Amino acid sequence: MRRAGAPRAGGRTEQFDGDGRRARPSGARGDAMNETDDAPLHARVRLFLCGDVMTGRGIDQILPHPGAPRLYERYCRSARDYVRLAERANGELPARVDCAYPWGDALAELDRVRPHVRIVNLETAITTSDARWPDKAVLYRMHPRNVGCVSSARIDCCVLANNHSLDWGREGLADTLDTLRRAGIRTAGAGDDDAHAARPATLGVAPGRRVLVYAYAAETSGVPPSWAATPQRSGLNYLADLSSVRATQIGERIAAQRREGDLVVVSLHWGGNWGFEIGDDEHAFAHRLIDTGAADIVYGHSSHHVKGIEIYRERLILYGCGDCLNDYEGIHGHQPFRPDLALMYFPVLDAGSGALVELSAVPMQIRNLRLQRAPADGKAWLHAVLERESRRFGTHVSACDVDGLHVHW
């Protein structure tokens, strides 16, 4: 076995079977129903990835400790308006719920699959700060005492390199980092200065096995240059462009830092909120990260709906994971993109090579501000869209009654 670094100290440690093995079905590459039963723990690593987790605004208002509801949007001036919109669309919500409520059926899926590592893109500040970013209208904020909404799903790493982490200024970012640290949750893509923001989250999955998460916020997702961390100020790990030169620089830097045996996830918050198009620059950038030996998974997000999936040189590229949790119920205008639908992605990597072995995706629907298993029409829509958008890359999707969608290549 190749040597790797030590697992992380502190925080939650994943529990493993006493024999060091995880029971799985057996069989061929690219089929989640056919994984080898007795593959030793060190041979494969299973991850949970999802798109934007937006637990601020309306969701925060139904949690045990709602923050100040004031908003600065054109049409909604209170976060409670989003609760009323959800109730108008799908019926009355409980007056107050526990912190695990928004995850709904997703918790059972996580218990069933038992991923070694759980990574989300957290698109909200966790703060009570009222110092909003000047001239920014759409703001997400969750009260720090509601951090259980993240920890209840046993999330290992929150990516913060996105266009909402500084909604409530640098004070809000500091609160977010501190709250997650106190909860034992690692962060990536934001920090007290540029060195901190560029530092990967290091996740121990077993003795001698690490997953590293690097995160970048691209200008193309609407992140302003003023949010970039510098040696003198806090901020995000900012990506000014998607040039080949930039990709090579990042790739070589990561490749030089990773240890033999590490698995690396590169998180990219890039592109617009709506539209299935994948730019040539995004395509080339993802390929270059893999070509330089930096990335085993390119984890893309920003679009509020799923986008195509590519397997390149046995590495997974998720161009857009879509939203996982949001408060968009009752909002009209983007129904053709089905922002009510979400996917839980479960890639399995060969621990020795970093190659993708399997990929399954479990369809969910956001209803009553919580995740529930997607109905038949929602699952069919996700299946059709993923197949259509991934076909250009030679990737195909099939449906299974047991655990949703399987990706083949």
What does this structure look like?
By secondary structure, this protein is α/β, with parallel strands linked by helices. It has a single domain, classed as 4-Layer Sandwich (Purple Acid Phosphatase, chain A, domain 2). It has nine helices and 21 strands. Strands 1, 2, 5, 6, 16, 17, 18, 19, 20 and 21 form a ten-stranded mixed sheet that branches. Strands 8, 9, 11, 12, 13, 14 and 15 form a seven-stranded mixed sheet that branches. It has a two-stranded parallel ribbon with strand order 3-4. α7 packs parallel to α8. The protein is globular and about 50 Å long.
CATH class: Alpha Beta
Radius of gyration over C-alpha positions, nearest whole angstrom: 20 Å
Element-by-element helix/strand order = EHHHEEEHEHEEHEEEEHEHEEEEEEEHEE
Shape: globular
Strand tally: 21
Question: Biggest β-sheet: count, sense, barrel?
Answer: 10 strands, mixed
CATH architecture: 4-Layer Sandwich
Seen as an oligomer or otherwise, the chain set is single chain
Structural class per helix/strand content? alpha/beta
CATH superfamily: Metallo-dependent phosphatases
| Distinct helical segment count | 9
Uncertain segments are 1-38
**Helix share of residues?**
10-25%
Q: What is the topological layout?
A:
Layout: E1 44-53, H1 58-62, H2 80-90, H3 106-113, E2 117-122, E3 125-126, E4 141-142, H4 148-151, E5 157-159, H5 169-182, E6 186-188, E7 190-191, H6 194-198, E8 201-206, E9 209-218, E10 235-236, E11 238-239, H7 244-257, E12 263-269, H8 280-291, E13 297-301, E14 309-312, E15 315-318, E16 323-325, E17 341-350, E18 356-367, E19 370-373, H9 376-390, E20 396-400, E21 404-408
Parallel strand pairs: 1-2, 1-16, 2-5, 3-4, 5-6, 9-11, 9-12, 12-13, 13-15
Antiparallel strand pairs: 1-17, 7-10, 8-9, 14-15, 17-18, 18-19, 18-21, 20-21
Helix pairs in contact: 7-8
Family: Belongs to the CapA family.
InterPro entries: Capsule_synth_CapA (IPR019079), CW_Biosynth-Accessory (IPR052169), Metallo-depent_PP-like (IPR029052)
Domain Capsule synthesis protein CapA: 46-328
